[in-house]
Amino acid sequence: MTDEAMRFLLGVLLSGMMLAANAAPREPAEVAVLAALHRMHAEVPAYPASALEAAILRLQPDVLCIEVRPDRFAGRAPEANKIEYPEVVYPLLESRPYRVYPMEPENPLYDRIGAPYMAASRAFHEAQPEAAAAFAAYGKAMYAALQAYWTSPARVNDAVTDQLMRAKHALQEALVGEGERAGWEAWNAHFLQVITRAAEENPGKRIVVVVGAEHGYWLRERLAQAPGIRLLDTAALLSE
């Protein structure tokens, strides 16, 4: 065989190997959705900020998806309600090389999604004050019951909690109307888009999504069906 023929054959073999490598299925990313309670961490004895930190460490992430805007994350800006970031997440990042994906949209998308959602809520309170008061009382009672139920971080992340949050939002959408439904769907869909991108960019890695407890059911339902993702049972992992 001539040198030219040999080079041609080697080229064909290398091209075939590259095509086979590119065609091989990517290892799915593992995703665990970890519910946070924002300011309520101080009101749930079994799930203070220190327990949230322990839960993140127990889940052993390579990647964190977090519920803040990219610009606020870049500046480590204080969060009025989401105390888990200045108290837990940001200190963890000082000593651990997690890759981080902020999930909230930047402006103008932040306002484009949020403005109609807030407008629908204001209109509901103005047009139906009695219904709004009844729904507020329902929400307060639901959270009081959950505070009694939340005897561990695992329970904040289990099917019982997700079922109650799903029911709350179904009722909220039925009462407030299309603006509520569309806004809630769009907000969560943006979170999902970021998580999906994180999974595509980190195949085979473990991603922990730190997000408010009300988002847990929505994200878990969609992530369970998402290609390239293996959804983990957060409650089971925290119970081990």
Mind explaining what this structure looks like?
There is one protein chain. With 240 residues, the chain is α/β, with parallel strands linked by helices. Helices cover 62% and strands 11% of the residues. The chain is built from eleven helices and five strands. The protein has helices at residues 3-23, 49-59, 70-74, 84-95, 109-127, 129-149, 153-156, 159-176, 178-201, 216-223, 234-239, and strands spanning 29-36, 63-66, 99-102, 206-212, 229-231. Strands 3-2-4-1-5 form a five-stranded parallel beta sheet, sandwiched between helices. Helix 5 packs antiparallel against helix 9 (178-201) and helix 6 runs antiparallel to helix 8 (159-176). The longest helix has 24 residues, at 178-201. The chain is globular, with a radius of gyration of 22 Å.
What is this entry, summarized?
With 240 residues, this protein is of the alpha/beta class. The protein has helices spanning 3-23, 49-59, 70-74, 84-95, 109-127, 129-149, 153-156, 159-176, 178-201, 216-223, 234-239, and strands at 29-36, 63-66, 99-102, 206-212, 229-231.
